[in-house]
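A quick aside before the break. I want you to see a complete sequence-to-structure record at least once, exactly as it would be stored in a machine-readable document. Don't worry about memorizing anything.
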Amino acid sequence: MLSEKMLEGLNNQINMEMQAYYTYLSMSAYFEDQGLKGFASWMFHHSEEEMTHAMKIYDFIHSRRGRVKLTALVTPPSEWEKPLEAVESALHHEQKVTAAIHNLVKVAREEGDYATDSFLQWFVDEQVEEEEVVDDLIQKLTLIGDFSPGLYLLDRELSENVGEEDEEE
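That is the input. The structure line, written in tokens, reads:
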């Protein structure tokens, strides 16, 4: 059984993961509108990953005889000045998710909930990867600056590489 504090934290994490899903989906729509289909596919792929994360927690709560409580999602942003701003926003969100996961690990350890601590280690590792992948994209966009042909080439690269991070695992 999960403690009330742990259950509340896990339910909040489901909401945060679903908010990430919704935000990445909005970014995908933004990039589609900008004619950057590679970026759009990349963001769509990452939105699906976030939903997978939410469902892992959903299933875990049920496996521990807890009750899932879903809350309303906030309308995500839908406009950015340029692609770099959107991707920086994604990194900021990933950093918030990482902090929340770390807090859940802290609670699990304080409460001696070894099963939840073990379960959360996958998320700790996943967040390192998530932040690295988004930061890598930021570094490339920063190098490109306002050089349109560079943006075109990066968009094409993203289109060709969508999902390859998963295949490497």
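Two observations worth writing down. The radius of gyration is 17 Å. The helical segments are 4-33, 37-63, 83-110, 114-144, 148-161, 164-168. We'll return to this after the break.
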